[in-house]
Amino acid sequence: MDQEIEIPCFFLCPISLDIMKDPVIVSTGITYDRDSIEKWLFTGKNNSCPVTKQVITETDLTPNHTLRRLIQSWCTLNISYGIERIATPKPLISKPEIEKLIKDSSSSYQNQVKCLKRLRQIVSENPTNKRCFEAAGVPEFLAKIVSRFIILYEYLNTCICNT
User: Fold this and answer.
1) Which of the residues 26, 98, 154, 161 has an alpha carbon 20 to 30 A from that of 7?
2) Burial class of residue 112 (count of CB atoms within 10 Å of its CB; 0-12, 13-18, 19+)
3) Residue 139, in any domain of the structure
4) Could you give the C-alpha distances from 150 to 58, 139, 144, 146, in angstroms and in order?
5) Half-sphere exposure (CA, 13 Å, Cβ side) for 96?
6) Are residues 66 and 116 in the same domain?
7) Where's the U-box domain (predicted)?
8) Radius of gyration, alpha carbons of the chain
């Protein structure tokens, strides 16, 4: 079927003009695709709603589950026109969850390795999780592990050279 299908305008992100995959509503009442509004806020160093120009923050982003379900249903109904169903996004990690993960890893080297693997998994699940890492102290945690490794390496190197 070469028939062109019209996409409902409220399914389109006002920034990217693409179908929203993870719609979020901001405090101004406007809905954007999460990826687009986060790029607007963080990459462009903007702090205002692109439509209303009112000040917003990253904490203003609330998932618009109803709109996401409507978009998913519409995609499913129009699959014969080549429209792909949009997957439900993975839930975001919270700052307390990351802080607990780091705290629980401090007891042993094995726990730190497990923690590092889990952090890598978390960051690959959702780009938004990267921003939560900084707030939860992940850079300091990683720096501590690297410095311990360097100290251990230098110690072992000295022992080997002195034998």
Assistant:
1) 26
2) middle
3) yes
4) 36, 16, 10, 6
5) 0
6) no
7) 6-81
8) 22
